[in-house]
Amino acid sequence: PLSGSTKWTNEYNLDSAVPDPYAQTNQVENVAQNTVVTTYERNVPGGFFGLNPDANKIFHQYATVDTEQRNAAPPNLLVAGGTCTGRLQDSAPVLVSSSARVAAAAPMEAMAVPAGLATIGAKDFNTKETCKFH
Question: Is the separation of the CB atoms in 86 and 130 below 8 Å?
């Protein structure tokens, strides 16, 4: 993996900071947090470097993740665009009355899920089969 490579270590050693405290955990998390920075930089007008005056302190780490992503096959998976037709089915709403914290208070009805609100469900889902990246 990139996080254990000599290339990553060399670029990391050229910088004076990491993106955030979580990136200080280890190099695996540091690469992950730099992936967040790269995604933000590529997709948000003004980017990460326009937002944070100290961003140049992590430039070599960011540039390494950015370059690796651009050279990946398929490239540019961190770039907005593409379509996804794989909509998961809504899961059942969680009953508030089943919460231990509120169960002793008063009986409560199940919360209605507003129309159009996406809910999380545990289902098999493969983006390669249902999504097309540009």
Answer: yes
Three-class secondary structure of residue 133 per DSSP: coil
By residue count, the chain amounts to 134
Give, in order, the Cα–Cα distances in Å from 5 to each of 33, 58, 63: 17, 17, 15
CA distance 13 to 130: 40
pLDDT tens by residue, 62-119: 999 999 988 877 665 666 655 555 666 777 776 655 555 544 444 434 334 445 544 4
Question: For the chain, first and last CA: distance in Å?
Answer: 25
Q: Is the pTM of this model over 0.90?
A: no
